[in-house]
């Protein structure tokens, strides 16, 4: 689950406000440190984000991370010609992270969070960009326009539907069909599930 969070860090952060549920799409960086056995999720939002004005720090929030997803055609199943007892479905992988949201209005913390997140996200590039590459006065001004957020994760729930309920011959034919349709990431998720 932590690997999925690292690989797909754009979360849908669901909070409860006086007007009902709100959803914000925010990249969150998973870190092992923090007061939770499941780690913490850290990020930042604009100071103008309505989330800041209307959330209860005692109410649990939900961050949803979603990996690849794909339509699965019944025609892809190797067993289709035998019985025709197949139907379309959708494969997906997601993680739900629950915890309490904390707002952090500390420029030093925000800078460290920006540097850590940037370093993690830039790690795969041949010439990684860093916060220090931008002019200091520019980044200092931007830091005053955002506020840090942290969720100490109290529980994680993984939801993988990747053809694991199918017989091996259908799993193989789905993997092949996904690869042929250039959906390699989902093909790999199905392949990984068959190894378990």
Folded structure, characterized:
- The protein is α+β, with helices and mostly antiparallel strands.
- The protein has a single domain (2-68, 91-165), classed as Pnp Oxidase, Chain A.
- Helices cover 30% and strands 36% of the residues.
- It contains six helices and seven strands, in the order H-E-E-E-E-E-H-E-H-H-E-H-H.
- It has helices at 2-7, 80-83, 107-122, 136-143, 168-180, 184-195, and strands at 10-17, 20-27, 29-31, 40-46, 60-72, 89-104, 146-161.
- The protein has a seven-stranded antiparallel β-sheet.
- A hairpin with a 2-residue loop joins strand 1 and strand 2 (20-27).
- Helix 5 packs antiparallel against helix 6.
- The model has no long low-confidence stretch (mean pLDDT 93).
Please write the string of helix (H) and strand (E) elements. HEEEEEHEHHEHH
Q: What is the CATH class name?
A: Mainly Beta
The separation of the N and C termini measures 15 Å
What is the CATH architecture term? Roll
The strand order across the widest sheet is: 2-1-5-6-7-4-3
Q: How many strands, what sense, and barrel or not for the largest sheet?
A: 7 strands, antiparallel
> Strand pairing plus helix content: what structural class?
alpha+beta
The portion of residues forming beta strands comes to 35-45%
The radius of gyration computed from the alpha-carbon positions, rounded to a whole number of angstroms, is 20 Å
Instruction: Outline the low-pLDDT stretches.
Output: none
How many DSSP H or I helices? 6
Give the count of structural domains. 1
The outline comes out as elongated
Q: How many E-type strands? A: 7
Question: What's the name of the CATH homologous superfamily?
Answer: Electron Transport, Fmn-binding Protein, Chain A
Mean pLDDT: 93
- Percent helix range: 25-40%
CATH overall fold name: Pnp Oxidase, Chain A
């Amino acid at each position: 689950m932590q690997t999925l969070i690292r690989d797909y860090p754009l979360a849908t952060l669901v909070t409860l406000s006086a007007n009902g549920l709100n959803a914000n799409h925010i990249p969150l960086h998973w870190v092992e440190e923090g007061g939770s056995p499941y780690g913490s999720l850290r990020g930042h939002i604009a100071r103008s984000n309505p989330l800041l004005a209307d959330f209860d720090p005692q109410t649990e929030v939900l961050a949803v991370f979603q990996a690849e997803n794909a339509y699965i055609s019944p025609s892809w199943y190797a067993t289709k010609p035998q019985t025709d007892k197949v139907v379309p479905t959708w494969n997906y992988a997601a993680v739900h992270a629950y915890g309490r949201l904390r707002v952090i209005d500390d420029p030093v913390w925000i800078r460290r969070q920006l540097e850590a997140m940037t370093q993690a996200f830039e790690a795969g590039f041949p010439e990684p960009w860093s916060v220090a590459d931008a002019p200091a006065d520019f980044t200092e001004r931007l830091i005053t326009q955002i506020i840090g957020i942290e969720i100490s994760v109290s529980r994680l729930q993984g939801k993988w539907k990747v053809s694991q309920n199918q017989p091996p011959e259908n799993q193989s034919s789905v993997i092949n069909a996904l690869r042929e349709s250039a959906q390699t990431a989902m093909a790999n998720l199905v392949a990984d599930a068959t190894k378990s």
